[in-house]
Amino acid sequence: MEKTFLMVKPDGVQRNLVGEIVNRFENKGFTLVGAKLMNISQELAEQHYGEHKERPFFGELVDFITSGPVFAMVWEGENVISTARLMMGATNPKESAPGTIRGDFAVTVGKNIIHGSDSSDSAAREINLFFKEEELVSYDKSMISWIN
Ligand code: RTP
Ligand code: MG
């Protein structure tokens, strides 16, 4: 089953949006298979955002993502990589549609609440960067009955 790496950025954690964001992906029907609240080191930030190394905003981006705890997650489900990107909304909140996470909660591009992998290659790379294999679980919700 397809997996993606999603992360509530430091602004989302500070604004108490972790629950709201988890809720959206749960309600959609995806399965949370790994999660942790953590601080990102300078080294991890530079690796994670390596593709933007030459961009003028790289320094700011690394400073921001290391400025406070993030909530790192791995989600599983059919087409979860592209669907999560749709649910996040456009990178720049001034273009992200209402109803999306960035459209509903963010104003500026530098503080856009959430990160999500943009392809299957980046999902594999980012999951590997943030999680050890034993930190991920595998389960089938339909097999667990809490009521009967
Ligand atoms: P992300 O990687 O965080 O999920 O965001 P994204 O794919 O939608 O956007 P990407 O192009 O990968 O950019 C990474 C992050 O860099 C910041 N950014 N700042 N000042 C700027 O013009 C600018 N452009 C991008 C954003 O926080 C973006 O999420
Ligand atoms: Mg990106």
Automatic annotation (TrEMBL):
Binding, ATP: 9, 57, 85, 91, 102, 112
Subcellular location: Cytoplasm
Residue span(s) of domain Nucleoside diphosphate kinase-like: 1-138
CDD domains linked: NDPk_I
Leader peptide range in chain numbering: none
Superkingdom of origin organism: Bacteria
Keywords: ATP-binding, Cytoplasm, Kinase, Magnesium, Metal-binding, Nucleotide metabolism, Nucleotide-binding, Phosphoprotein, Transferase
Similarity field: Belongs to the NDK family.
Role of this protein: Major role in the synthesis of nucleoside triphosphates other than ATP. The ATP gamma phosphate is transferred to the NDP beta phosphate via a ping-pong mechanism, using a phosphorylated active-site intermediate.
Subunit structure: Homotetramer.
Listed name of the protein: Nucleoside diphosphate kinase
Species this protein is from: Sporosarcina oncorhynchi
Lineage, top ranks: Bacteria, Bacillati, Bacillota, Bacilli, Bacillales
GN (gene name): ndk
